[in-house]
Design goal:
Length: 303
């Protein structure tokens, strides 16, 4: 998802809500700044708060409850993506809401904590929250910039799920060529050493490169610049009638390098979810327990 002008309303909304929350927090602690004749809403408790722990005040609880609600909404994005026909807003709208409402939780969490880290339990919860937010921001940055980088470095893309089949077809074509070259060499149909040179190149370089599962960058043909030099030398050493086959082999190797590059890009583009999703679920569970424990404590402390 790219950050463009369509995100401006969400940015303005989050900014406005942050300002409102910050003003409410300040006036809750310093009612003397209220205009004459204006009183802080009684439903939000006494002013200034009687509790030193701001998270246990009515307004602090409100900040925490809203943040928890946003966590739950953000987690529902996965369900919304699978139910694309639901008439409850487009997936793009949900993505924007997911992004900017979770950004809103940053000031809400800070205000809920009263700018204090607290004890081990709160510190652990904040550490988990930080991990979720950092991984999410990292994912947004990747999704914003990586597609442009992919378009720049990938002249053509393959459907990601088809990459294993593309690799198999490249290896099969190279194997068939190796068989043809061996037959030509055995029958003596060529009057030069080109089939032998081409066969050795296929055996030593091309087939190992096309058949390897991982680590292609460690092979000679995995380096585009080195591969270009190798094919340049190969063309010089074979008869002109074999050079079209050299061009074919070079095209196969280039396709393999491009599919490997696309795979790495895709792993970067989606790999951050392996951290973000499970930690987000853990955060929701721990936050619900935190809210339950906090409310239970307040109830037991109420005279």
């Amino acid at each position: 998802m790219r950050i463009d002008r369509s995100h401006l309303p969400w940015i303005l909304l989050v900014t406005a809500l942050t300002v409102i929350a910050a003003i409410s927090y300040s006036l809750n602690l310093h009612p003397e700044f209220l205009p004459r004749g204006v009183k802080f809403p009684a439903v939000l408790g006494p002013v200034p708060p009687l509790r030193a722990n701001y998270g246990g005040t009515p307004l602090g609880l409100l900040f925490g409850i809203v943040a928890l609600g946003i966590f739950l909404f953000a987690a529902a994005l996965g369900v919304r993506k699978k139910k694309r026909l639901w008439p409850i807003g487009s997936v793009q709208t949900w993505l924007k809401a997911h992004l900017w409402l979770t950004v809103l939780t940053i000031p809400l969490v800070v205000l809920h904590s009263g700018f204090r880290i607290g004890g081990p339990h709160t510190m652990g919860l904040l550490a988990l929250y930080t991990l979720v937010m950092v991984s999410g921001i990292f994912g947004v940055i990747l999704q914003h910039f990586l597609p442009s980088i992919m378009r720049e470095h990938l002249p053509r893309e393959v459907v990601f799920e088809q990459i294993p089949f593309v690799r198999e077809s490249l290896l099969r074509a190279a194997t068939e060529l190796r068989t043809q070259v061996a037959e030509t060499n055995a029958l003596g149909l060529s009057g030069d050493t080109s089939p032998q040179i081409l066969g050795r190149f296929l055996d030593d370089e091309c087939l190992p490169f096309l058949s390897v599962k991982k680590g292609v960058r460690n092979l000679h043909l995995g380096n585009a610049q080195l591969a270009a030099e190798m094919f340049k030398i190969l063309r010089v050493n074979v008869h002109p009638e074999w050079r079209p086959r050299v061009d074919e082999i070079e095209a196969w190797c280039e396709s393999r390098r491009l599919t490997d590059l696309q795979t790495r890009f895709q792993h970067w583009l989606h790999g951050w979810l392996l951290v973000h999703v499970p930690t987000s679920l853990v955060l929701i569970i721990v936050t619900i327990w935190h809210a339950w424990a906090g409310i239970r404590f307040l109830v037991t402390q109420t005279p």
